[in-house]
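Hello,

Our lab assistant flagged a job as stuck in the queue for most of the afternoon. It eventually completed. Since we weren't sure the result was trustworthy after the delay, we are filing this so someone can double-check. Below is the sequence as submitted and the structure that was eventually returned. Let us know if re-running is recommended.
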Amino acid sequence: MEASLRRMEDVAMSPSSDLHKPREAPVQELTSRSPSQAAAAQVPVCPMDSVTPTQPLRRLPSRTVPSVKTIVGSGEAKPKRKRIRLKTPRRREQCRNNQARYRKKQAEYAKGLELTVEQLKQEISVLEMQHSRLVSSAKTSAWYVVVEYFHIFYNGARSTRQISSGPEAWLQKSEAQQQLAFLQSSMSDDVVVGDQRGVNALLEQWKRYTSYFDDLQFQLDRMTRISEDSIVAAASLNVTISELTFQRVFPNLLARHEGSSQEHKIALLRSKMLGQRLYLPCRLCFEWDETSKRVVRMERTVDFLTPLLQVVETIADATFVLENSLVSQDGTIREK
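-- returned structure --
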């Protein structure tokens, strides 16, 4: 046992060069192989102690070598130099002008869209009214016509002289056409309105009220059917007195009586009435013809006395204002 251990120690203590010497292949073996195999067999084996296993191999970074075509084709173009503009007062003024033009263009575009939407709404309203008059027999009744009359003349009627020439002109013309189409389709051609006859006479009265007063509003309060052919409506006509009201409706308040007490009274009444809001009670009676499905007569009364009394404060002054005015008891405004 001890002898075996000593032999193992002798082997371990022998030089490492002897252990790692490459073995020489037998001559017979080399001669029997092919030339390529023989050359491979004669490659010396690297000694084990020359390799350090603790140091990992590092990968070299790969580099892409550009081809000659790439180098020649690129030409190494120089980058464009940016032009630097100095913020001079003139340049700042140009920027402000450009921004102002842009904002103006945007505002005009938005306004154009709004007007287009309003035009479409007006067209839809006209088409709906025509459709309802031609197709829906249920709506061709006196009750429907009266309600629609108050709706379509809620803000009166513009005269052709009042229609502007701007972008809103189309809307105003469309509204006037809608009102005329309604009167022609719902009232007879010779409809009786007080002492006047015809659709045009009725429309002319609406134009005068709208022109001679400011901020007109025509509101329906209630309706009552008194017979199969008649409907009575109570309403309120709300207007504001303007300078044109004195010229076209109350010209007696513009008369001059220099040096007299009458002149002072007229001036005082004018100052009290100018800019005042009048709420005029109205009563309208519509007579319906079932055969033609149209209104053949419309009687109306407009009360100017009661609201004027609240403005001028005395019955004598209210009577004085109305005595020489151009408005009649039924509300018709006459020409001078």
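-- support follow-up --
The delay was a queue issue, not a problem with the job. The result is valid. Residues 132 and 139 are 7 Å apart (CA to CA). Confidence is low (pLDDT under 50) at residues 16-22, 24-32, 48-52.
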